[in-house]
């Protein structure tokens, strides 16, 4: 069964239990206080991008003719079957792989390598087990000339923002998977990137933690005005968070269609309009 359909196995009563728990846990949104977001200018332009790997002497065409404009402050979700090239595309945008055809232009410059202005979070948290929560986050400053007191101040503020106050001195083995992912997100955000890249950051988490972190991610995104790209297998997550859901298909990996999600935030997962968009996207996987 495609990963994207796994969520369909949950019964309505189980889903409602999960949702009411998540609502209690989630930070309370003040709808009247929220700034109306306006789409900004194009921040990231992916133009005619292709990627071929060499595998056992053969050429493996993984991405072909990818074209996508992402506006400043937009949240883009990318879904698609396993192996369609989602992570490969994200790595190209991160600058972790610079061997590609076409152009990826971020804020007017072709991406030629990694940059502190682009933060990335992977499925595994990649924390150093011998460092505390605060030391793992502070590590992000190692290539900068930010002063020690300023680092400390920003680390504490970021820890507070992701809800980890009190766990500053804990080691990764002393905190849960969800908390570890929050540390990874804090580490990605501490340098105040303008572009946040997320590669299935919640895939290894249980359903409750996942819902809670989706809400927290939305809060951080709104708070910091980040342009965000999320790769996920979870269609519901994609619709809950995305301004647009990019559906990819395989062999070679390419964009099948882009589904706009204009529902107001925070989105109500049980609302018919939400179901309609989720079900529409799911038709690409059945
Ligand atoms: N370094 C590499 N060398 C050769 N082939 C690679 C390399 N990295 C990825 N691939 C291949 O590229 C294809 C796309 O991989 P990618 O990880 O981007 O897919 P994905 O859509 O993110 O998959 P999943 O959803 O399972 O994570 C796969 O066939 C994979 O085997």
Automatic annotation (TrEMBL):
Domain of life: Bacteria
Ranges for domain ABC transporter: 44-275
Gene3D superfamilies membership: P-loop containing nucleotide triphosphate hydrolases (3.40.50.300)
Keywords attached to this entry: ATP-binding, Cell membrane, Membrane, Nucleotide-binding, Transport
Coiled coil: none
Annotated SUPFAM superfamilies: P-loop containing nucleoside triphosphate hydrolases (SSF52540)
InterPro entries documented for this protein: AAA+_ATPase, ABC_transporter-like_ATP-bd, ABC_transporter-like_CS, ABC_transporter_ATP-bind, P-loop_NTPase
Family of this protein: Belongs to the ABC transporter superfamily.
PANTHER family assigned to the protein according to its UniProt record, in alphabetical order: ALIPHATIC SULFONATES IMPORT ATP-BINDING PROTEIN SSUB, TAURINE IMPORT ATP-BINDING PROTEIN-RELATED
Protein name listed in UniProt: Sulfonate transport system ATP-binding protein
Species per Swiss-Prot/TrEMBL record: Methylobacillus rhizosphaerae
């Amino acid at each position: 069964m495609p990963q994207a359909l796994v969520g369909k196995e949950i019964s309505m009563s189980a889903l409602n239990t999960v949702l009411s728990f998540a609502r209690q846990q989630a930070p309370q949104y003040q709808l009247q206080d929220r700034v109306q977001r306006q789409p900004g200018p194009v921040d990231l332009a992916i133009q005619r991008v292709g990627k071929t790997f060499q595998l056992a002497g053969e050429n493996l065409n993984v991405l072909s003719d990818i074209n996508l404009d992402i506006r400043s402050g937009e949240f883009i979700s990318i879904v698609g079957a396993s192996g369609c090239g989602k992570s490969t595309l994200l790595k190209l945008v991160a600058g972790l792989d610079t061997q590609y055809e076409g152009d990826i232009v971020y804020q007017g410059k072709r991406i030629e390598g990694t940059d502190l202005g682009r933060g990335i979070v992977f499925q595994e948290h990649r924390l150093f087990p011998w460092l505390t929560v605060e030391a793992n986050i502070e590590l992000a400053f190692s290539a900068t000339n930010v002063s020690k007191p300023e680092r400390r101040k920003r680390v504490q503020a970021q820890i507070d923002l992701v809800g980890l106050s009190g766990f500053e001195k804990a080691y990764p083995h002393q905190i849960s998977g969800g908390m570890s992912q929050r540390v990874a997100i804090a580490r990605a955000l501490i340098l105040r990137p303008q572009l946040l890249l997320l590669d299935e950051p919640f895939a290894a988490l249980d359903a409750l933690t996942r819902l809670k972190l989706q809400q927290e991610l939305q809060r951080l995104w709104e708070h910091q005005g980040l342009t965000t790209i999320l790769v996920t297998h979870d269609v519901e997550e994609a619709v809950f968070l995305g301004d647009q859901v990019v559906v990819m298909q395989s062999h070679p990996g390419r964009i099948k269609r882009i589904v706009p999600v204009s529902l107001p935030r925070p989105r109500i997962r049980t609302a018919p309009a939400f179901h309609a968009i989720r079900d529409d996207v799911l038709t690409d996987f059945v």
